[in-house]
Amino acid sequence: MKIKNKTSVTGSDTVVNESEVEFFGPRILVLAVCFLSLLWIFQSGEKIESLINVHGSGSVFLTAPHGISHLRNQKLKKADANTTAIAIKLARKRPELFTAFVWKQKTAKLTAKRNGWELQDPNYMPLDKVEQSPFYVHLSRQMNKHKKVPLVIDIHGMKDVHDEIECDVALGFGAWYSVDATRGNLFRNCLAFNLKRDYQGEFKVDCYDKFSGNKNREMITLSRTAVVLLGIPAFQIELSKKIRASMMTDEKVLVALVSAIEQCKSKT
Q: Which one of 15, 102, 131, 235 has the lowest number of neighbouring Cβ atoms within 10 Å?
């Protein structure tokens, strides 16, 4: 490249070689872009972290991703009532056993509103977007704080009458997305025994492999995220409206759940 400057003294063209001109423009532009990119990544990471509250310090990770209204397939879904409260109650009851990851609800809602977007469903995400999930960020960081392999229990709510599910606790597990059948059945049998002993069959427990989040194999659920991307055993637990209400007022229901979780965790 050559730059020509006209002089007023001789009227002739003075040719200045490229080596004689230090052209900073492109270099400054590249540095500015790099700096802004790093700043955006840093700020995004901070925003992601700020959306989640963490309770407890145990190696059983409780998640309640539907504890706040969210978008799935461009449709707004209401929060699963009491799932956040149940996760927090368990973590406060046994902080050495549980770590609960729940939405920081006011912050999450305000952040979404300020940025003009709705919260995407962290239990139904494209594989290439999953690292943007605040639950993924926290799970991946917390798992390194424990010597033993953690266990993830993903807590959801369902209606008292839901499709063909006729139970109060529906467990989702299997080779495709969560813990193996041996540990899953152990949890189911232990919880069923505890509830039958204390409530004479009022609450029913069963397994279910048709959760809507697993119908589309191009999307990934939170339990599958734990297993496939982080190598952590996990399963999904759906709680009926009736048993969620009982867990908020009856300590025995929580005790029955904790006992079953401890049995399952001992096998991980």
A: 15
